[in-house]
Design goal:
- This protein is mostly helical and about 575 residues long.
- Helix content is about 70%, strand content about 5%.
- It has helices at about 15-35, 45-60, 65-80, 190-215, 225-375, 380-515, 535-565, and strands spanning about 5-10, 525-535.
- Strands 1-2 form a two-stranded antiparallel sheet.
- Helix 3 runs antiparallel to helix 6 and helix 5 (about 225-375) packs antiparallel against helix 6 (about 380-515).
- The model has no long low-confidence stretch (mean pLDDT about 75).
């Protein structure tokens, strides 16, 4: 009898499905760890960069700062305005009228003698009391009421209202994991099934080879065949899982890339549309503000121009009225003076005629009396009477002529002096009135110019304040717009960062889910122990034949013997 040698192998294993899932999870973890890229950070997008650039440009040298600087300069210019100082304008010195006197003519008298002494008959001389004139005609002066002009005013100034605009917001395109199926290749499942089918064919072919080898070794159906087939199944199962994971991962990555491209195109279109709407709104608001400013400037210019015309017309009309009134009063005064002078001249002329006639009549009467007296005494004292009469007559004529001439010269001198004094007084009064009138006009023009200058300075100061306020509002709007653009850009950056993190961590999320399902206490994954043993092959054949005979008779004994021998 011979003893046979060999070894015995005992194998313990867990559920094959659980082991397969666990190994697939390990393979997925290795794939995720190997494919995990470097962490990426979303950069500043164009919207954030544009907002930051606008914020810097506006803060350093924005149009609002230029407007505020210009307003400060104009305010400083208006604050330093020096109003025109108006001093009182004197209408003098007054024209002084000098009095013109006259030198009275003196008459020494005519003398004759010695007189011839004769018994003369006297006579009562006719007395002439003299002609008188008066009272003198007085000229009344006529004044005039000066026309006052209150001045034209303009206002209130037309104000231009600034029109703003609302920037168009961009709704960021977002990725929805539920829509990823729309981007999956419809043929990816067929590709996976075909690849797994090819792998399954290889597995069947390998198992057939193992069976053929076991049959050739007379070990068909033995434990070694089972172990070989199990190892083959495990290897091909692992390869099938890896292949399926890789194919699914490629399909998912391709779908994700297509979705990202689609989202990028949507985002770009939304940004372009928002930029165009914002640009259109900004252009419309700028055009409206420009039109409002131009219209307000035109209204203010028209109001100032019309006010200037009204002021000029009012001053011109007042000056014309004053000139007409002054001319009318001057003409009335001149006429009154002329009429008074004519009346006085006529009275003086008539008085002179009456004086001459009276003196002539008195002389005639005296001559007649003298002639009568001479005639009466002619007889007694003819020669004496004749000589005395002739002497008296001659002396009387000389005396009368001298007195008459002296009176005429005194009257002429007095009249001439009075006329000159009156003319000088009238001329002095006219010059003083003209000086006072001119001084009043100059004073009024200076005050009007001072008021116009002050009004212009106040208008420029108000315009500078308004320009400063508009510049401050413009600066604030631009700063707010830039900050809003930066906030929108920052929100988009955060969204892009979240999408990049989600893309990077999708494998780890899947691995975490798979690991959570396998996080329980796992049993021993299995082990194989081989112990050597020695047995009697002949005894084993006999024992197997005996046992086989009990179950199947002679045939069972043959099979049992073979199994017991190779056992």
């Amino acid at each position: 009898m011979s003893k046979g040698g060999g070894s015995t192998t005992s194998t313990t294993s867990i559920d094959p499905d659980l082991k397969k899932a666990y190994l697939a999870n390990i393979g997925q973890a290795q794939s995720v760890a190997g494919a995990l890229p470097v962490r990426q950070f979303a950069g500043f997008n164009p919207l954030y960069t544009a907002g930051e650039e606008q914020l810097i440009n506006t803060g350093l040298n924005g149009p609002g700062i230029q407007s505020v600087d210009q307003a400060a300069y104009q305010t400083a210019q208006a604050g330093g305005y020096q109003p025109q100082m108006v001093g009182g304008i004197s209408g003098g010195p007054a024209a002084m009228a000098g009095a013109t006197g006259y030198q009275a003519s003196n008459f020494g008298g005519a003398q004759t003698g010695p007189a011839s002494m004769a018994g003369a008959m006297g006579y009562q001389a006719a007395n002439f009391g003299g002609a008188q004139t008066g009272p003198a005609a007085l000229a009344r002066s006529q004044g005039y009421q000066a026309a006052n002009f209150a001045g034209a005013q303009t206002g209130p100034a037309a104000l231009a209202g600034a029109m703003g605009y609302g920037a168009s917001d961009v709704n960021a395109a977002q990725a929805n994991m539920g829509d990823i199926g729309r981007y999956m290749n419809p043929y990816s499942q067929n590709v996976t099934q075909n690849a797994l089918s090819d792998l399954e064919k290889q597995r069947q072919k390998s198992l057939l080879q193992i069976s053929q080898q076991a049959g050739a070794a007379k070990a068909f159906g033995g434990s070694r065949q089972g172990v070989a087939e199990a190892q083959t199944n495990i290897g091909y199962g692992t390869e099938a899982g890896n292949l399926s994971s890789k194919l699914n991962e490629q399909a998912y990555n391709n779908a994700m890339a297509a979705q990202q491209q689609d989202l990028a195109r949507q985002q770009q279109a939304a940004m372009q549309n928002a930029a165009q709407r914002t640009s259109a709104s900004q252009f419309g608001a700028g055009a409206a503000n420009q039109a409002a400013l131009v219209n307000a400037a035109a209204k203010n210019a028209m109001a100032q121009f019309n006010t200037g015309n009204l002021q000029q017309a009012g001053l011109s009309n007042a000056a014309s009225q004053n000139a007409a009134s002054q001319f009318g009063a001057g003409a009335a005064n001149q006429a009154a003076l002329t009429n008074a002078a004519a009346q006085n001249a006529m009275q003086q002329f008539n008085t002179g005629n009456l004086q001459q006639a009276g003196l002539s009549n008195a002389a005639s009467q005296n001559a007649a009396s003298q002639f009568g007296a001479g005639a009466a005494n002619q007889a007694a004292l003819t020669n004496a009477a004749a000589q005395n009469a002739m002497a008296q007559f001659n002396v009387g004529n000389l005396q009368q002529a001298g007195l008459t001439n002296m009176a005429a010269r005194n009257a002429a001198s007095q009249f001439g002096a009075g006329a000159q004094n009156q003319a000088q007084l009238t001329n002095a009064a006219s010059i003083n009135a003209m000086n006072q009138y001119n001084a009043g006009l100059a004073q009024q023009s200076a005050l009007a110019n001072q008021n116009i200058g002050l009004a212009g300075a106040q208008f420029r100061l108000g315009a500078a304040n308004q320009l400063g306020n508009l510049g401050t509002q413009q600066q604030g709007l631009r700063m707010s717009g830039a900050q809003a653009a930066m906030q929108a850009g920052s929100a988009r950056q955060q969204l892009e960062q979240a999408q990049m993190d989600a893309m990077r961590n999708i494998g780890m999320e899947k691995l975490g889910i798979s690991s959570g399902a396998l996080s329980g206490q796992l049993p021993n994954l299995g082990m194989t122990q081989t112990q050597p043993y020695y047995r009697n092959q002949v005894g084993g054949a006999l024992g197997g034949a005996a046992a086989g005979y009990q179950f199947g008779g002679p045939i069972g004994a043959g099979i049992g013997g073979l199994l017991g021998y190779f056992g």
